[in-house]
Design goal:
single chain, 389 residues, globular
C-alpha cells in the first residue's frame, strides 16, 4: 500500500477530518489532502513530526514509504529526520534502504553522507564497533577527496569510537590529527570539543598531567560556549588528583556559580562531595550529594547510580547505617547501566552494611583502578561492625 492511503486510513481510524488532522499535525489541509491522494510525495522532514503528533506508529507507515521511495536523497532526508527525533532504529532502516538504492542505481553521490549518518546512528545507539566500521569506510572513501572539515570530523568520530571499543592508544593520535585539522581551519568550537574528548580519554587512562593540559586547552577554546563547564570540571578533577582535594573546591564552586545546566551541576556537586569527603568534612559532603540528587532534571542512570554509591559511602563513613541502607536501596532501584567502579564499591559496602550485594555482573574491573572509593570501603570492612543503626 502507498504511504498516502496508509495515512488516510490511520486518520479515519482516529475519527479525524482532514482539517483536524492537518491542524493537529502542524501541516496545511491542502498539503495533507494531496499526500493522502498521492498527488504529491510527503516531505520527510514534515512526515516524522506529523505522524508523531497523530500517534501513528512508525512501523505502520514506514514500510509503505520505503516501498514507494526510490530516490536516495529523500530516503537520506527521512533518515536524518528520524535521527534528529531520536528514533535511531527507524533512522538506520531508512539509511540502509538509501544505501541499497545507491548501489542498485550506481549513483554514489550520497554515499559519504549516508555512511556518516549511519556511523552517528550506531554511535548514538551505543553500538560503537559498527559505528567505527561505518566511519572507517567513510574515511577510505574520502581519502582523496572531500573538504578538510569533513576529514577532521571523520578523524574525530573514528577516535571517539576507538576510545569506546578499547583501542585507546590508537585513538590518541587520531584525536591529534583532528586537532591539527580543526586548528588549521580555525574552527574553535570543534577544536575545543576534540581537546575535551582527548582529555576524557587521558583521564580514564590515569594520565592526569596530560589530561589537565588537554582540559585547559578545551576550556580555552570552549569558553562561553556549550561544553565549557565540562572542560572546567575536568580541570577541577585533575586538580583534585594532582594538587589535593582542597585545590579543586574553588574551581568546582565557580562552575556551579556560572553554569545553569542541571546535569552538569549534579556532576559538580558530586565531585564537591568527593573532595569534601577526602578532607573529612562529611556533613558538607552529604549536603552536596543531596543537591546532586535533587536537581530538576532526569539524570542518566550511570550518573544517578554513581551519586547513590557515593552517598552510601559517605553515610557509612559517618556511621549512619540507616541512611547508608536507604541509599543502597535507592541504588538497587536504579534502572539502567552502572559504572564498574560503583558496582565494585557497592558490593563491598553491602557486606559492611550486612545487606545483599547488588546483583549486576561486574565487568572486568581491577580493584586498584578504583582506589579513590574502594580504599575507604575496604577500611570500613576491616573495622568490622563499627556502624550504628
Amino acid at each position: 500500500m502507498h504511504i498516502g492511503p496508509v495515512l488516510r486510513q490511520q486518520r479515519l481510524l482516529k475519527g479525524l477530518t482532514v482539517t483536524e488532522a492537518a491542524t493537529l499535525g502542524g501541516v496545511t489541509r491542502s498539503y495533507l489532502s494531496m499526500v493522502e491522494t498521492a498527488q504529491r510525495a510527503p516531505n520527510p522532514e514534515l512526515l516524522v513530526p506529523f505522524t508523531r503528533k497523530l500517534a501513528i506508529p512508525t512501523e505502520i507507515w514506514l514500510p509503505a514509504f520505503l516501498a514507494d521511495e526510490s530516490r536516495c536523497s529523500r530516503l537520506m532526508r527521512l533518515g536524518r529526520a528520524f535521527f534528529a527525533s531520536g528514533d535511531h532504529a527507524a533512522a538506520r532502516r531508512a539509511l540502509l534502504r538509501a544505501l541499497r538504492v545507491s548501489r542498485e542505481s550506481g549513483d554514489a553521490r550520497y554515499n559519504s553522507d549516508i555512511h556518516m549518518l549511519l556511523g552517528q546512528v550506531c554511535y548514538a545507539q551505543g553500538r560503537y564497533l559498527p559505528a567505527l566500521r561505518w566511519f572507517r569506510r567513510l574515511e577510505r572513501a574520502i581519502r582523496h577527496g572531500a573538504d578538510k572539515r569533513t576529514h577532521a570530523i571523520v578523524h574525530y568520530n573514528v577516535a571517539q569510537c576507538m576510545a569506546k571499543v578499547g583501542q585507546e592508544l590508537d585513538a590518541l593520535p587520531r584525536f591529534d590529527e583532528a586537532i591539527a585539522e580543526f586548528g588549521q581551519l580555525e574552527l574553535k568550537f570543534e577544536l575545543g570539543k576534540t581537546w575535551l574528548a582527548k582529555a576524557n580519554l587521558l583521564l580514564s587512562a590515569r594520565m592526569h598531567r596530560e589530561a589537565r593540559q588537554a582540559y585547559r586547552s578545551a576550556a580555552y577554546y570552549l569558553r562561553g560556549r556549550r561544553h565549557s563547564g565540562d572542560a572546567l570540571l575536568g580541570c577541577a578533577i585533575t586538580a583534585r588528583v594532582l594538587d589535593g582535594a582542597r585545590a579543586s573546591l574553588p574551581l568546582l564552586q565557580k562552575i556551579v556559580d556560572t553554569d545553569a545546566d542541571p546535569v552538569l551541576c549534579a556532576k559538580v556537586h558530586a565531585h564537591m562531595a568527593i573532595a569534601l569527603r577526602e578532607i573529612g568534612r562529611l556533613g558538607e559532603a552529604v549536603a552536596e550529594i543531596e543537591k546532586s540528587l535533587s536537581v530538576q532534571a532526569e539524570l542518566p542512570a550511570p550518573l544517578e547510580a554513581s551519586l547513590l554509591a557515593e552517598a552510601t559511602l559517605i553515610h557509612a563513613l559517618r556511621h549512619d547505617r540507616a541512611a547508608a541502607l536507604r541509599a543502597l536501596s535507592r541504588y538497587n532501584a536504579v534502572q539502567g547501566p552502572r559504572e564498574g567502579q560503583d558496582i565494585a564499591a557497592m558490593r563491598i559496602l553491602a557486606r559492611v552494611l550486612g545487606a545483599p550485594p547488588p546483583e549486576e555482573d561486574l565487568p572486568r574491573v581491577v580493584e586498584e583502578e578504583h582506589e579513590h572509593r574502594l580504599r575507604d570501603a575496604l577500611r570500613l570492612l576491616q573495622d568490622g561492625g563499627a556502624l550504628e543503626a
